[in-house]
Amino acid sequence: MRTTLFGLTALALLFAAPALAQNAEPEAVNPAPPPAVMAAPSNPPMTGPRILISTAMGDITLQLDSVRAPKSVANILDYVKRKHYDGTIVYRVAPGFVIQMGSWEAGGKGRGVRPAPVALEANNGLSNLRGTVALAREEGPDTAKAEFFINLVDNMNLNRNPNDPGNNTGYAVFGQVIAGMDVVDAIGKVPVGDNGPMPGQAPVTPILIKRIAVVK
């Protein structure tokens, strides 16, 4: 009789064990930290005059930065004052990269520029981000004249090389589109061909720049 009771007691304890385990307090689990969010690159606020670029496809307003890029801005304003850009075209469209303008008219005719170029100001704390405007140049650092481009995307590879001890690499940003980026994007999508100074990147239908003027 005792043996039977012992057996029943043992069986009761055996079946009760899983129930006890299920009612035990769960171990605390520390949640994994959220993934780090990288801040999007940005430029500091720009201070200086504004210029309006009136094109056949719409208007583009630029905020220039005469504090960080004084020589570049003075250079552009001088060309604007002399109406150098009026009647020229957007002669380069590189989709997903830049649009460029400066000294070319429809039909491939170029306009003369001042012989003295402007010193490179790529080491000014401004990056070639989408919507920024920078001076185009030849291979040498101090070779920029009237040509400039607007970045369609973030082109960080156009910034000054961080290993450059001076101002010998990169392209100097001197302004930012503050109105008309939709016009810039539309220009960046037009069909291109070989009828311009840069084969394969010239708008098939010339995009006239009616005038560029200071608005503030």
Query: What is the makeup of the main sheet?
Result: 8 strands, antiparallel, barrel
Q: How many strands in all?
A: 10
Distance between the termini: 108 Å
Q: What's the rounded overall pLDDT mean?
A: 88
What would you report as the Rg, rounded to the nearest angstrom? 32 Å
**Strand order of the biggest β-sheet:** 1-2-7-5-6-4-3-10
Number of domains: 1
Q: Architecture, according to CATH?
A: Beta Barrel
CATH superfamily: Cyclophilin-like
Low-pLDDT residue spans: 1-24
* Envelope shape: globular
Beta-strand residue fraction: 15-25%
What is the CATH class designation?
Mainly Beta
CATH fold group: Cyclophilin
What is the number of helical segments per DSSP (H or I, 4+ residues)? 3
Helicity, as a percent range:
10-25%
Structural class, from helix and strand content?
alpha+beta
Order of helices and strands: HEEHEEEEEHEEE
Question: Can you describe what's shown?
Answer:
With 216 residues, this protein is α+β, with helices and mostly antiparallel strands. The chain has a single domain (50-214), classed as Cyclophilin, CATH 2.40.100.10. The protein contains three helices and ten strands; from the N terminus they run H-E-E-H-E-E-E-E-E-H-E-E-E. The chain is globular and about 70 Å long.
